[in-house]
């Protein structure tokens, strides 16, 4: 796959439209934004992988409290370093697009919030999630007692099978009762 706009052929563009929730214009804009992050030498290489640090310079991700987790979840790197190819980047934008379904969005949200990648949201994942949302400064961090109470409340509301964790189907059940989730779970270039 080429990296300049002229190298993003009609066939590839059509294939990307088929495989994502993105329009032709969104794919072309994503391609432009991705290639702007490449060095001159990288632009001539196929399947260039951008390091997470460069991806995180995008304003759309820079202020997202889950930016590093988002890169890790969408990265296909064998090194598990959060680096993204253009196709990884398209997958990310597709999942966060307005056209993505509740099922797709909730699946990826679950994976992003599953910090230890064990397939469940346990107390450790929930604590990290809350810290990402509230910030980890002394001014914003919850006290241990507040954190324990909040996690207990989350589990009380979400943990249907009472195993002390939230699995994907329990998470999707909770999300299905949150009408603003689909519209708020988005990244637009």
Could you describe the 3D structure shown?
The longest helix has 15 residues. The protein has eleven helices and no strands. It starts with 9 loop residues before the first helix and ends in a 5-residue tail after the last helix. It is mainly α and 189 residues long.
Name the assembly state: single chain
**Order of helix and strand elements from N to C terminus:** HHHHHHHHHHH
Output the radius of gyration: 18 Å
User: Biggest β-sheet, characterized?
Assistant: none
What would a concise description of this structure say?
With 189 residues, the chain is mostly helical.
Task: Chart the SSEs and their pairings.
Layout: H1 10-19, H2 24-36, H3 52-55, H4 59-62, H5 67-74, H6 86-95, H7 102-113, H8 123-134, H9 144-158, H10 168-176, H11 181-184
Helix pairs in contact: 2-6, 5-7, 7-10
Q: What keywords describe this structure?
A:
globular, 189 residues, 53% helix
